[in-house]
TrEMBL record:
<feature type="region of interest" description="Disordered">
    <location>
        <begin position="98"/>
        <end position="134"/>
    </location>
</feature>
<comment type="similarity">
    <text>Belongs to the prokaryotic/mitochondrial release factor family.</text>
</comment>
<dbReference type="GO" id="GO:0043022">
    <property type="term" value="F:ribosome binding"/>
</dbReference>
<dbReference type="Pfam" id="PF00472">
    <property type="entry name" value="RF-1"/>
</dbReference>
<dbReference type="InterPro" id="IPR000352">
    <property type="entry name" value="Pep_chain_release_fac_I"/>
</dbReference>
<dbReference type="InterPro" id="IPR045853">
    <property type="entry name" value="Pep_chain_release_fac_I_sf"/>
</dbReference>
<dbReference type="GO" id="GO:0003747">
    <property type="term" value="F:translation release factor activity"/>
</dbReference>
<feature type="domain" description="Prokaryotic-type class I peptide chain release factors">
    <location>
        <begin position="7"/>
        <end position="131"/>
    </location>
</feature>
<keyword id="KW-0378">Hydrolase</keyword>
<dbReference type="GO" id="GO:0072344">
    <property type="term" value="P:rescue of stalled ribosome"/>
</dbReference>
<dbReference type="GO" id="GO:0004045">
    <property type="term" value="F:peptidyl-tRNA hydrolase activity"/>
</dbReference>
<protein>
    <submittedName>
        <fullName>Aminoacyl-tRNA hydrolase</fullName>
        <ecNumber>3.1.1.29</ecNumber>
    </submittedName>
</protein>
Amino acid sequence: MTPDGRIRLPESELSWRFSRSSGPGGQHVNTTETRVEVLWSPTDSTVLTPDQRDRVAARLRGRLVDGKVSVVSSTHRSQLRNREDAVLRLEQLVTEALRPAKRRRPTRPTRGSVERRLDAKKRRSQVKRDRRDW
């Protein structure tokens, strides 16, 4: 856990893929692999408790591919900065997935809103009734 409350993922649990970034940049872009993709498996993690693993897997199920979460970074020109950015974003994603969902407090419509709705329904039905009576 970092001072800002973010989960720290050990380097041993991360796997990396590198490729060339797209976009402008001239000859440099065509020769260096600065785009970074970091992969992490929540089910194999040693940092999380079993309950936390289940919660992360459930919350991030839309992002899971073959049981792994993938984060891509190609915003910086250097591979090192893109690696740091990708790990930071992955840790923020996992921390957010661990945060408990807020309970919805059931509410009721106000008396005024109920009365306005019923008055509108009565007016509308009166309009239609008046059309029929012609």
